[in-house]
Amino acid sequence: MTDVRQRTVNPSETTKSEIDNAKDQSDEEDDLAPGETTDPSTIPQGTEKTPDVLDGALKDINPRWRNWIIRGIFTWVMIFAFGFVIYMGPLALVLLVMAIQIKCFHEIILIGYIVYRSYDLPWFRTLSWYFLFASNYFFYGESLAAYFGVLLSRAEFLMPFFTYHRFISFSLYVAGLVAFVFSLVKKHYLKQFTLFGWTHVTLLIVVTQSHLIIQNIFEGLIWLLVPVSMVICNDIMAYMFGFFFGKTPLIQLSPKKTWEGFIGGALSTIVFGIVLSYGLVQFDFFVCPLRYDDIKEALSMDCERHPVFKVTEYNLPETLQCLFRIVGIPWTNMKIYPFILHSICMAIFASVIGPFGGFFASGFKRAFKIKDFGDTIPGHGGIMDRFDCQFLMATFIHVYYSSFIRVPNPTKLVQHVFTLKPEEQIQVFYMLRDRLLAKGILNGTDS
Amino acid sequence: MTDVRQRTVNPSETTKSEIDNAKDQSDEEDDLAPGETTDPSTIPQGTEKTPDVLDGALKDINPRWRNWIIRGIFTWVMIFAFGFVIYMGPLALVLLVMAIQIKCFHEIILIGYIVYRSYDLPWFRTLSWYFLFASNYFFYGESLAAYFGVLLSRAEFLMPFFTYHRFISFSLYVAGLVAFVFSLVKKHYLKQFTLFGWTHVTLLIVVTQSHLIIQNIFEGLIWLLVPVSMVICNDIMAYMFGFFFGKTPLIQLSPKKTWEGFIGGALSTIVFGIVLSYGLVQFDFFVCPLRYDDIKEALSMDCERHPVFKVTEYNLPETLQCLFRIVGIPWTNMKIYPFILHSICMAIFASVIGPFGGFFASGFKRAFKIKDFGDTIPGHGGIMDRFDCQFLMATFIHVYYSSFIRVPNPTKLVQHVFTLKPEEQIQVFYMLRDRLLAKGILNGTDS
Q1: Which of A110, A191, A279, B78 has the smallest C-beta neighbourhood within 10 Å, fewest atoms?
Q2: In a domain, A318, yes or no
Q3: Does residue A316 lie within any of the structural domains?
Q4: Which one of B30, B399, B420 has the shortest CB-CB distance to A167?
């Protein structure tokens, strides 16, 4: 909060021409937010702040290249930091996602405060953070129960939290709702309801989707790394193709985006995705899910590989076979990791639909007349500016995984049976045996 | 839409004093919605419209009693209509919930249109209804798969919809998002994003919660009927106690609510809940879930009763036993349906927390300066006015059921095994046998 207030009194950061420009825009527009301020000096503008060391070193360079270099340096800083967290394993990544989620929530809520001039609304900040806490409590609990239920059921003192998880979460939420109703003040009804909605839409976008990311991590690191890298690759390559070859504007919302960047980005992403996937599928570390092994009684990343990570022989389609025969190559089939084929689908989504996450974010920023969501990363803007497409991509991967990749897992079903009482375990066993016998799948002598 | 436009030009419905009144209010308040109109004549005001027949019959009666009578008549009309739908069984109730959900969505979205004067926003209405469709497709599919998966897996042509359900739903949603981005028009960014948020908050409140109601229905009609009746009872009794004895105002948000009504309502609801529960638990029709019986190959409402619907003997607490001993009654235990005890918890929620759903709705209506959500039910306002507390209650019941009532269901687990391929079914069987043998739960001679 402090840094925003500082920015509002620092004239070097909002030039007069920026203000005039914003005023011109506002004349064109007949939409004004409730209590919205059109004076951009009070809204965070992504200050392009640069560490002093870099500033000194780059002061003689042409500004166009300068921003490119700063952005490039911090891209690599982020990539290396990310690499280190990957090296630390799945649980460190979960913590990273958690931290990013909190920062994104903070950035969006801060914009809400400022746009609706609601510094002084009673209890509002406390309530927003409380709802963030309550919804995270709910989602983390659900994920932990789904993936580590067997482990958690060992710790006696955790059992009530596990058994009554939904009830506790609901009580937390209802307490927040009751507090909201009590916090209502006649003068501010409209602002309070608007910000209540604002908080909930933010929770919907940030919290729910970041938990899908966490679930992707638990299915195997590759389900996080490949899509995240694809989005980054597409961002960078679209920027570079646009920078060097960009001519034809793509969409009114993001005037800097061009068709050249879009197409160059897409092709690069497909190639990059294939190469990266081929590299990662070699290592069990990336393809095996973290799970609780209840024979070894420890967390484990050993696994029988999922079929998509095993080399499989495919017959080539007839037409392709003909083509090859004509040029004298007798290829009729090929051996490939099926994951490589899936990675092509992911790359297409990342480069065709993924950018709409970014367009949506651009539209949002334009609606509220802000340049960036924050100024956390020099040359890049806020955390949310870098994650706008990641969220949509993560949801896609989650859905893609559960529709096309997930196979019913006999081991998990058996683990599920062991959450029952012993007499019910026996009951399941006999029911299953009788049904299998009746269907002739099992014959009498087997059992 | 038509009726709202009619209302805006019909002076008999918004009297001058109402307008002046609203103007006075708006002077006090410094919050104005984006493009919000403070002129109440353009916002639906709940016209207290009454069918002509009734109007004639009641014209000589004191207006205070008149509204009471109209409200009373339509309360009974609704109760009888509801009774008829119950008689038709669970699937008819699901359709009713669906219809109510659509009407509530319509009422809230209509308010959004009018408050933000967005009749002419490109594509907005179409997109709102499209998102309603997409989210319902998702939730209905999930519920159907969870409760009738075995049945659905019989119909070959439905299989792709079942297997790829999440992917189809996600694609539908993403198509809507892409359409939204393309529909953005520079002049209207702010309105468009505000209404996008409005639509999503409405979906969150109406669609998600109405699907919890549907899931409650599938667990047994009693899980719908008892809570719904409790909320109705609490509404009516609080109104009546308030009407006859009300003196002390309860909360600033709803000036008509009094402590006398609140307490009278709560006590009546507890007593009513006990009586109603005792009545309903006698019938299998109310306590058995609708499920697919894959031996009979038909939908069935026969069941082995859940333990909460079987008479159980409880030892009274020591202190109570002492008290009874002192007065010479040797009661040490009592026989009761456990559901009766649960119904007391539900009644307490319905009368203590439930009304906050109503307060929230009141605050919302005040924020946007509307009297009712619509004028669908004479004397009551819109459908949403009657369902504000029902939604919160349904969520409570859902959470309560899954935390305290649901028992792991061996039959469902076994059904789940049969969604696997035959060789995997065998695999589960042997894994289960080996584990049970290893744990000594099963001994060698059994199998």
Answers
A1: A279
A2: no
A3: no
A4: B399
